[in-house]
């Protein structure tokens, strides 16, 4: 059983109040609040990015079998370079490690794939791939913003040469998320589904004292992974899980520090990079004609296209 652990790293540029009539030669300075962006980047850097990156680097050196995967957006790296260069440097250091794989996505973590015309989407994906090449990696697996996925998006990713693409393991697809699949309209790309239960146990429920499995420890979680049936368990969470969504005093980073050792006690479990999971034999084909995502309970695009103003 391969354990595919993937972390999403993104910070949007925050909007500021502005007038359409003010004179501005530079759109960024009109629309975006760089003071707020800097404050948020530095706050999350101290609580999450820097200490968690350091913990992962130590784990990767201590446990040669440990592997992790990231999607780091272009907008995030731009802000890190501007406001917290030590954060940008630490992600570049992670990217150089042989057991770390970076996934491609849209440079701006955008909704470009929802537009009927896909040129902007393809352009942003290519720009993000160029950024990853600058960090020393050639991306092989694609992860769209908010796991937005459909047959059409899979076909575009396949045409761009990707070996794998990620999606949410929504129940109504009728497929276990613990296998690799082939999209209905493709032949040379694997579909990797998020195990949302085991992902959300860490991402959402870890510090919930009302949860009947609280507290979640590394040995307990490893036993759940061990009991899982299939070829892969795909754990996809927001990176801010480690220190920002769940604060340090919840024990979230201690959980992370103990996890590789606890997983190693189960001989049939092994950590894997995205491209290794994408090399698994496909269990079946999966048909997703309508767009799905990992957003909200609906797992569709209603978060962004739910009313006429949004669609406009």
Overview of this protein structure:
The structure is a single chain. With 312 residues, the protein is α/β, with parallel strands linked by helices. Helix content is 39%, strand content 15%. Helix 6 links the parallel strand 4 and strand 5 (164-168). The protein is globular. The mean pLDDT is 95.
Inertia-based shape: globular
Percentage of residues in helical conformation: 25-40%
Coarse structural class: alpha/beta
Distance between the termini: 45 Å
Number of strands: 10
Mean pLDDT rating: 95
Contiguous helical run count? 12
Spell the H/E element sequence.
Answer: EHHEHHEHEHEEEHHEHEHEHH
Strand percentage lies at 15-25%
Keywords summarizing the entry:
15% strand; 12 helices; 312 residues; alpha/beta; 5-stranded mixed beta sheet; 5-stranded parallel beta sheet
Summarize the structure.
This protein is an alpha/beta fold and 312 residues long. The chain contains 12 helices and 10 strands. Strands 1, 2, 3, 8 and 9 form a 5-stranded parallel beta sheet that branches. It has a 5-stranded mixed beta sheet with strand order 4-5-7-6-10.
């Amino acid at each position: 059983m391969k354990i595919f652990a993937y972390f999403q790293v993104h910070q949007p540029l925050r909007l500021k109040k502005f007038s359409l009539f003010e004179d501005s030669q530079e759109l960024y300075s009109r629309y975006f609040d760089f003071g707020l962006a800097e404050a948020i980047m530095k706050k999350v850097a101290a609580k999450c990015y820097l200490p968690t990156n350091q913990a992962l680097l130590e784990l990767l050196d201590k446990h040669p079998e440990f592997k992790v995967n990231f999607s780091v957006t272009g907008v995030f790296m731009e802000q890190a370079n501007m406001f917290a260069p030590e954060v940008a440097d630490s992600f570049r250091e992670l990217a150089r490690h042989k057991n770390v794989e970076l996934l491609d996505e849209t440079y701006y973590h955008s909704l470009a794939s929802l537009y009927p015309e896909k040129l902007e989407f393809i352009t942003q994906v290519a720009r993000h791939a160029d950024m990853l090449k600058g960090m020393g990696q050639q991306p092989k697996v694609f992860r769209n913003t908010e796991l937005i996925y459909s047959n059409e998006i899979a076909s575009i990713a396949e045409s761009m040469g990707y070996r794998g693409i990620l999606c949410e393991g929504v129940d109504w697809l009728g497929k276990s998320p613990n296998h690799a699949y082939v999209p209905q309209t493709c032949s040379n790309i694997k579909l990797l589904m998020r195990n949302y239960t085991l992902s959300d146990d860490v991402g959402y429920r870890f510090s919930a004292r009302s949860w009947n499995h609280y507290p979640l420890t590394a040995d307990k979680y490893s036993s759940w992974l061990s009991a899982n049936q299939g070829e892969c368990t795909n754990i996809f969470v927001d990176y801010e899980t480690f220190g920002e969504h769940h604060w340090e005093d919840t024990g979230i980073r201690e959980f992370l520090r103990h996890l590789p050792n606890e997983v190693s006690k189960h001989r049939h479990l092994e950590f894997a990079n995205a491209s290794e999971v994408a090399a698994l034999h496909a269990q079946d084909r999966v048909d997703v004609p309508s767009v799905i995502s990992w957003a909200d309970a609906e797992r569709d695009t209603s978060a962004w296209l739910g009313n006429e103003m949004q669609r406009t």
